[in-house]
Amino acid sequence: GHRPAIVTMGYGRRSSGDACILEAAGGVLAESVGDEAAELWLATQCPVHVGREPANAIDQLDRAIDHDWVIFDDGVSRAWQGEKRVVALSDSDFERPLRYLPFGRWRTTPASLKSASYVAITSLSDAPAANAHRERLQEWGFSGQVGWFSYRLEGIQPYPDGLSSDP
Q1: Is the Cβ–Cβ distance between 17 and 9 less than 8 Å?
Q2: E strand or H helix at 152
Q3: pLDDT at 67 over 50
Q4: Lowest-pLDDT choice from 33-37, 131-135, 143-147
Q5: Local confidence band at 163 (pLDDT 50, 70, 90 cut-offs)
Q6: Among 12, 38, 60, 81, which residue's Cβ finds the most Cβ atoms within 10 Å?
Q7: What is the rounded average pLDDT of the residues 128-156?
Q8: What 3-state class would DSSP assign to 68?
Q9: For residues 28 and 13, is the Cβ–Cβ distance under 8 A?
Q10: Could you give the CA distance from residue 72 to residue 46 in angstroms, rounded to a whole number?
Q11: Angle (nearest 5°) at CA 80 between 75 and 111
């Protein structure tokens, strides 16, 4: 029942406008809005607002569409007062050695997780894996809440055996 919207800087786009909103896929080219914006729209069907300056993009988004959540796709380079930063990881993100872009999913060092409020981990198989994840997160300096989730057709669902979050 929520109405989320996504704000992104439009990495890789060739257009120079301050902002544009993706609400329909018809004719949208990744080169005009950025490959990340196009992928986010295709994956979520949520309105995606693209802009060079996040504060302006969020302001324009607030005036343009009705939403109750803003998901800001800007990694760890900026912080907003009162934001809750959620980082999504998978089992492969814990493998050694860490793999950075373009060969893996990491853009920055795991130490950046210190600023996160919550880490959501997909593909958990058992309690020993959960303990290994917790230990690795502590090595990286993360001390917030952790949750494990599996993908299902109806969306992301928490694992049922008490592994959904820390006490």
Answers
A1: no
A2: strand 145-152
A3: yes
A4: 33-37
A5: very low
A6: 38
A7: 81
A8: coil
A9: no
A10: 12
A11: 40
The type of residue at 100 is Y
Asked if 23 contacts 65 with a C-beta cutoff of 8 angstroms, the reply is: yes
- Cis bond upstream, residue 102 (ω within 30): yes
CA–CA dist 31, 150 (Å, integer):
32
Kindly state the tokens that stand for 66.
């009705």
User: pLDDT at residue 157 above 80?
Assistant: no
Q: Is the pTM value of this prediction over 0.85?
A: no
Which tokens go with 84?
Answer: 């809750």
**φ and ψ at 20, to 5 degrees?**
-150, 155
Q: Which two tokens stand for residue 165?
A: 């979050």
Report helix, strand and coil shares of the chain as percent, to nearest 5.
30, 25, 45
Max CA-CA distance within the chain?
49
Q: How much is the average pLDDT of 78-106?
A: 79
Strand 155-158, strand 145-152: pairing: antiparallel
